[in-house]
Amino acid sequence: MDSEGRKVVVCDNGTGFVKCGFAGSNFPEHIFPALVGRPIIRSTTKVGNIEIKVILFVETTTLHNVENI
């Protein structure tokens, strides 16, 4: 609690999950995936009779290490 007796909310925006709760608690009240939304279908390609869809979950990204691919 702060000096006026109000509870302080804490949100941890992690890579995989967002965790929210109150300051001073041992564990977060709520945990949910950090990836929210629907995939964006960028393009389709046909290989024979099979349609291949390229799906992206982010608009842009940065590659830091080629070995992680």
* Overall morphology: rod-shaped
Unreliable parts: none
User: How many alpha or pi helices?
Assistant: 0
What string, H for helix and E for strand, traces the elements in order? Answer: EEEEE
The portion of residues assigned to helices is under 10%
CATH class: Alpha Beta
Overall mean pLDDT stands at: 76
By DSSP, the count of extended strands is 5
Between the first and last Cα atoms, what is the distance in angstroms? 45 Å
Which strands sit side by side, in order, in the main sheet? 1-2-3
- Sheet/helix structural class: mainly beta
Pfam family, one: Actin
Protein name: Actin-related protein 2-like
Organism: Gouania willdenowi (Blunt-snouted clingfish)
Structural write-up:
With 69 residues, the protein is mainly beta. It has one domain: Nucleotidyltransferase, domain 5. 0% of the residues lie in helices and 43% in strands. The chain is built from no helices and five strands. The strands form two sheets. It has a three-stranded antiparallel sheet with strand order 1-2-3, with no helix packed on it. A two-stranded antiparallel ribbon has the order 4-5. It is rod-shaped and about 65 Å long.
